[in-house]
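Is PMV placement plausible here? Inputs below.
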Amino acid sequence: MEKATAIAPSNIAFIKYWGRENPELNIPKNGSLSVNLDQLHTTTTVEFSPDYQRDQIIINGHEDETEAKRAIKHLDKIRLLAGITEQAKVVSENNFPTGSGLASSASGFAALSVAGAKAAGLNLSERELSTLARLGSGSASRSIPDGFVEWVKGSSHENSYAYSLYPPDYWDIKALAVIVSLDKKKMGSVEGHSLVDTSIYYGVRIVHMDGKIAHLKEAMAEKDFKTFGEIVEAEAVDLHVIAMTSNPPLFYWKGASIEAMEACRELRDGGTLAYFTFDAGPQPVVFCQGKDAQTVAERLKSITAVKDLIVNEPGIGARVVDTHLF
Ligand code: PMV
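Reply from A.M.:
I modeled the complex. Tokens:
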């Protein structure tokens, strides 16, 4: 069997996945919409071989037990699909800090799915790769297709998948990933998903999701950036209201996260359209139109606690590459 390598982008959701209908299969309570981030990615090489005595998982140069467990569970699914029993060596590199609120699980499981399937001799369609990636981490399903992506909620393993709504060059928008903290997260998204029903507001959120998705898709079809931004921002606040009112409560924002929200409002008051979103972490991702990227970046960099700022364009999805990591 041949060694295989894949690169997969991280993605940022406009409409978020928060809460699971089926926790085993990562079937979400609602559909979601996202864009791939061209500057943040994971590269993964997988090799199955009778020479390996055990699965060895090396992520960013380290073997970590918790991370390895999740990866091995995913390899087991790939082995089952391919009808093989060989152990594997997996080497994976993120080009951004793991566990910092930038979605390393999305790019990580997308890359592992594409490289693993290829290394196991499977020939899967994009849709099948998306459902496979979803089993590792829900949001990973959205890192498989290109550009602007919709994850259809679905009701079974086969029909809960992501597909490309538009290619990367459809719309000249930028996603500025602002690094305000490099602390490892205390509470990951796995816990967050399982706590949603403890928030008294979750029922209200869910009632509005289909309408919100339809409204956002309309704004995207019309390239109406202002409406797009207003929906995206309100949606991020909505997710954090659920998180903050869960039991135990999850507070992800830091002081600098709030400062970035204020900076967006201030930029808009001055006529520059900038809108924030957040995943389950403190790092804001700010959307703006291509022409405004420099103005927005400069304003965000003026926040004292900002450590780094990565300007992303909409990116292509996961793909196989020829250069291996070992
Ligand atoms: O894929 P998970 O289980 O890491 O969940 C992702 C959750 C959010 O990042 C907060 C939202 C999203 O849709 O990406």
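Short version: The pocket of PMV is lined by residues 13, 16-18, 32, 103, 105-106, 137-139, 189, 193, 279-280 (CB under 6 Å).
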